[in-house]
Amino acid sequence: MYFWLQRCSICLDQTYNLCLESCRDQFCKDCFSRYIEETVNQSWGLGVTRIKCPVCQEIINQAEWSRYVSPEIVAKYNKYNQPYRPYSRYCITCQHSISPCQSPNAQGISRESRLANIANDLDLLSKSAKNTSLSILIHEATQHFLSTCQKGSTFRVGRTQELCHQVIPILHQVVLNQMDLYCLASSISKQLVALEIIPEAWKHAQFRHISYFPMEICMNCGDTLCLQCGETAHLGLGCLDYLKAKLKRSTDAELISTIQWKLNNTRPCPNCSVMINRDEGCNKVDCLQCGYRFCWKCGSAWTQAELGVPDMHAIDARRQSIQTL
């Protein structure tokens, strides 16, 4: 018994030479360093990954685990685990990184200034409307905004989320009726997202913006990009429909093969609308961008499975395969 108490909790082979200060679990340095490196290398999504003890799952302070890995691993962790890390895509023309939404503190603008800018832009949007129905929509968005802002000088938790849920869809409806207002409506949407100060809520708010305003201009080359699929902007046409149209007019064999693979193995996340791929595995899928868990086959939220309900898609497939034998 005493022999096993001296073993590394990961490999159970080497004698431990590392004892964590937080939970007192023990490992050999090689195993623990390898565990940290693997965890960091897998933490490239937009969520913040906390390094946990592999035994008791208690969060390990960065000041402690960083002593056992190289500075490059620590730098990589810091790069991909920022509270306000924005979603970005690379321009297909110049490979320049495009990030539609910046963190609340990125531009150094106060909340009061943002609110004033949004009010002015909504007024400008209303004046630019060409028909009465659009004016009514914009007036509705303005009323939502003003009523929320008048509830108090400080925003309670969830108030910015209310604004995003109420105003951004209305702005999208305005754009569908008058396309020349896209840039102004998109700018208002971005400013609404920038009002959010809670990191996790801000992350979801930026995906709400992307789902309604996917077109973004590359500031380096001037080309427009669809943030959902990474292709050239195709406003008014869904990503899958655009790929199908691109497939019909393509003549290059390699390009046709690539597009066909995308059509067979990618689809938009039901929550953030960003195209994700899956070429193998079960129907339970986690979006690496927004973290939404859903069924790949039907697109519904994977809530029943979390409650222990069996995967009926897999059961039906298994039943059909048995019947064909």
TrEMBL record:
What is catalyzed by this enzyme?
A: [E2 ubiquitin-conjugating enzyme]-S-ubiquitinyl-L-cysteine + [acceptor protein]-L-lysine = [E2 ubiquitin-conjugating enzyme]-L-cysteine + [acceptor protein]-N(6)-ubiquitinyl-L-lysine
Q: Name the EC number(s).
A: 2.3.2.31
Q: Which GO terms describe its molecular function?
A: ubiquitin protein ligase activity; zinc ion binding
For the protein in the UniProt heading, the enzyme class is transferase
Superkingdom, taxonomy of origin: Eukaryota
* Residues covered by the RING-type domain: 4-325, 8-57
- List, in alphabetical order, the GO biological process terms annotated in this UniProt record: protein ubiquitination
Do you know which Pfam families this protein is assigned to? IBR_1, zf-C3HC4
Kindly provide the name given to this protein in its UniProt entry: RBR-type E3 ubiquitin transferase
Write down the species: Rhizopus microsporus var. microsporus
